[in-house]
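Inverse folding, one chain.
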């Protein structure tokens, strides 16, 4: 059981959207918010978690936990204020698989 009191941050979950300029034909990528103002817990990874994660994902430094949402995909990103988090994946909880999600993330200001 996840303690909902830990969800003290608010994040937006965004997906990439491709758009083509009708005049030039140039394809650009923008971001569209799929889930807004999601209660979440944003925590730095512990040393043990960081060492374990290096075997799977070398640069993850942050863990974000939030209630399970339908339709999460690996191309999405998580935004809090000006900070962009790039999830390495969305891991379902061990008990039910549908109560909460843990996302090990890298932090950056890139395009996700």
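Residues assigned per position:
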């Amino acid at each position: 059981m996840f303690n909902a009191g830990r969800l003290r941050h608010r994040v937006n979950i965004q997906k990439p959207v491709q758009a083509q300029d009708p005049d030039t034909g140039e394809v650009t990528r923008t971001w569209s918010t799929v889930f807004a103002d999601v209660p979440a817990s944003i925590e730095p990874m512990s040393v043990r978690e960081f060492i374990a994660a290096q075997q799977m994902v070398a640069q993850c430094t942050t863990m974000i936990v939030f209630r399970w949402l339908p339709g999460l995909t690996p191309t999405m990103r998580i935004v809090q204020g000006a900070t962009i988090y790039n999830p390495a994946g969305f891991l379902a909880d061990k008990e039910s698989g549908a109560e909460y999600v843990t996302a090990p993330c890298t932090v950056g200001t890139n395009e996700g």
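The longest strand covers residues 27-44. The chain has one domain: 4-108.
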